[in-house]
Amino acid sequence: MGRTADAPPPGAAAGPPGRRSLLRGLALGAGGAVLGGAGGIAGGRLMAEDEVPASAASVDSWEPPERQVDIVWSVDTAARLVALTFDDGPLPKWTPMALDVLDEARIPATFFMVGSRLAAHAGLVRGRLGRHEVGNHTWRHDDLSRLSRAAGYRTVHRTHAAIAAVTGREPVLLRPPWGRMGGTTVHVAAQHGYDIALWSLLVQDRALHRDPQRMIDDVVQRARPGTVLLAHDVGQASRLEAVRRLPAMIAGLRGRGFSFVTLSELRRAAARSGGRAAPAAP
Ligand SMILES: [Zn+2]
C-alpha cells in the first residue's frame, strides 16, 4: 500500500506535492491500489477499462464511500470474549466437521462464506447455522482490490443474496479475501451497509503447523479479550490440523476464562462495556 503514496497517483496534476495533494495521494494509498499506472496493468494482466478500480482510476474520479465503514481487526473490551471465525466454506470435506465440534461445545462462530460454494452446498449448512453468524467472502473468493466497482458490487451482492436465502438473515460483515482492502472494497462494503471484518490471530500459523499441539497452545496463550481468531473450514493440510484440534483449542481458551461469541456479538459487547480495556502494565 505504501507504494501508491510514494508515487503521484495516476491523473494527478504535475507540480510540487503540496500537503493537500499528498493527503489525496494517501487516500488513494489507503484504497490500496497497486496498479502500475494509468494504463491499468495489474498482476501482469492488462485490465479492460471498466475493470480499473474506480478509486484508483484517477484522482478526479475518486469519491468517498457513501457511508462510514468500520474496519475491525479485533475489539477493544475488558470482557474475556473472543470470536472464532472460519473462512472459505462451505465445502463437504471439513465444514460439517467444524459444525460438529461447535455443536458439541455449544459455541457460536462466524463463517465467512464464499457465495458460489454456499449456493452449491447449501444442504451442508441449512438448518445448522442457528447460533452462528454468516458473513460475506465474495462469490468466488475474488480479489476485490482488483475489481471495478461494478464487478465488486456483483460478487458481493450475489453472495449477500445467497446468504440471505439460505440463512434467512442479512449479513452485515464483509471479509475481503486475503484481507485485501484496495480498489473499491470499502465502497462496495458501504453500498451494502457492511463493516469490514479482518482478524487479529491466525489459528493455523504456518510456522507452527507441523507441531499442531504447539500451534494450539500458541493460540490459547496469545488470545486476548476481543481477539478475532481466523481459522478455515477449507484448504490445505495445516488448516485441517487446526480443525482437528478445535476441541483442544476451545478447551484451552475456556480454561483461561474465555467465552465465545459471534463477531457481531463481540462488537456489541464491547460497545456495551464502553470499549477499551485498560492497557496492560509494562
Ligand atoms: Zn478466504
UniProtKB/TrEMBL annotation:
Domain NodB homology span(s) in chain numbering: 80-261
SUPFAM superfamilies with a match to the protein in the record: Glycoside hydrolase/deacetylase
Superkingdom of origin: Bacteria
Pfam families named in the record: Polysacc_deac_1 (PF01522)
Protein name: Polysaccharide deacetylase family protein
PROSITE patterns: NODB (PS51677), TAT (PS51318)
